[in-house]
Design a protein that fits this description.
The protein is mainly alpha-helical. It is built from twelve helices and no strands. α2 runs antiparallel to α5, α4 packs across α7 and α5 packs across α12. The radius of gyration is 20 Å and the shape is globular.
Length: about 280
C-alpha cells in the first residue's frame, strides 16, 4: 500500500484550509493554486459550448431521476425493504469503484491535446491537480454537469422500461432497477461530494457530519490523493474502496501492465502541466 506520512502531505500538497497561502514551503514560483501558469491556461479553456452541454445534460438527468424515482416508489413492496437496502449499499460501492476507475484513467493517461476528450473531459482533471481549490469556485452546473451526462443513457433505458413493461415484468426486474438507480444517483453526486471534500469553510453541519462519519468523502481522507504525484486514493464518491484497492495494489498493477504493453508512462501529461512556469 502507498503510505503518505504527515510531513509528506505537508510538503507535497497545497494547504487547502488556508486559501491565502499557496503552499507550505516557500518557493520563487507557485507550485499550486490559481496563480500557477498551467492552472490559468487550463481554466481559460472552459468554453460556452461546454457550459451549454453541461446545462442540458444536468436538467435532462434531473428529470429522469425524478421520473424513475416516482416509478420505483409506485412499484415498491414494503416486504422487500431489505432488498432495497442491499441494492443501495451495492449501488454506492459500485459508484465509488467507477469514480475511482474514471478518476484514475483521466489522471493517469491521455492528454489535454486529445480531440474532443482532451479539453472536454481530461482538462478539468489537470486543472484540479494544479489548483485543487478551483472546484470550490465552480457553480453547481460546472461541478456536476459531466457526471449527470454519464447517467442519462442508463436512466433513459430505465424510464423506457417503466413506460412500456407490464407491472409483472417490472416486478421481476425491480431489484435490478433499484441497484442501477442508486448507482446513477451516487455517480451524479460524486463530484459534489468531491467539491465538499475541498471546502474548508462554510459547509452546513449536516455535510461535515457525513464527512466525519465517512458516509461521504472526508477532507483528510481525500487529501492523501493530492500528495504529488497523485498516485493513490482515486475513489471519490465515498472513498470506502480506497484502502482495499491500495491493499491489493489494484492501480499500480494496472499501470504496470499498461506501461509494459504500450510504453506510455503514467501521469506524463499531468507532470507536464504541473511543471509549466509560463
Amino acid at each position: 500500500m502507498v503510505v503518505k506520512k504527515e510531513d509528506e502531505i505537508l510538503m507535497k500538497s497545497m494547504l487547502e484550509d488556508d486559501p491565502n497561502s499557496n503552499e507550505s514551503v516557500a518557493t520563487e514560483k507557485p507550485r499550486w493554486g490559481p496563480q500557477h501558469a498551467g492552472a490559468k491556461e487550463l481554466a481559460s479553456q472552459y468554453t460556452m459550448g461546454k457550459r451549454i452541454q453541461e446545462t442540458i445534460c444536468l436538467f435532462t438527468a434531473i428529470g429522469l431521476i425524478i421520473w424513475n424515482f416516482t416509478q420505483l416508489v409506485r412499484y415498491f413492496q414494503p416486504e422487500n425493504w431489505y432488498i432495497v437496502l442491499v441494492s443501495a449499499i451495492l449501488g454506492i460501492l459500485t459508484a465509488d469503484f467507477f469514480s475511482g476507475l474514471v478518476h484514475w484513467g483521466a489522471d493517469t493517461w491521455g492528454s489535454v491535446e486529445l480531440p474532443i476528450l482532451g479539453k472536454g473531459f481530461i482538462r478539468p482533471f489537470r486543472e484540479h491537480h494544479i489548483d485543487p481549490t478551483s472546484i470550490t469556485r465552480h457553480d453547481f452546473i460546472e461541478t456536476n454537469g459531466d457526471n449527470f451526462a454519464v447517467i442519462i443513457p442508463f436512466l433513459a433505458q430505465m424510464a423506457y422500461k417503466f413506460w412500456t413493461l407490464t407491472p409483472e415484468q417490472i416486478a421481476a426486474t425491480y431489484n435490478w432497477e433499484c441497484y442501477v438507480f442508486f448507482i446513477a444517483v451516487f455517480v451524479s453526486l460524486t463530484n459534489q461530494f468531491h467539491k465538499w471534500s475541498h471546502t474548508y469553510f462554510g459547509l452546513p453541519k449536516w455535510i461535515t457530519l457525513l464527512q466525519d462519519y465517512h458516509i461521504i468523502l472526508p477532507k483528510k481522507h481525500h487529501r492523501i490523493h493530492h500528495v504529488s504525484p497523485h498516485e493513490t486514493y482515486f475513489c471519490i464518491t465515498t472513498g470506502w474502496l480506497n484502502y482495499p484497492l491500495e491493499k491489493i495494489r489494484f492501480w499500480t498493477t494496472l499501470e504496470s501492465l499498461i506501461e509494459s504493453t504500450t510504453g506510455n508512462k503514467p501521469r506524463a501529461d499531468d507532470f507536464k502541466w504541473a511543471s509549466k512556469t509560463h
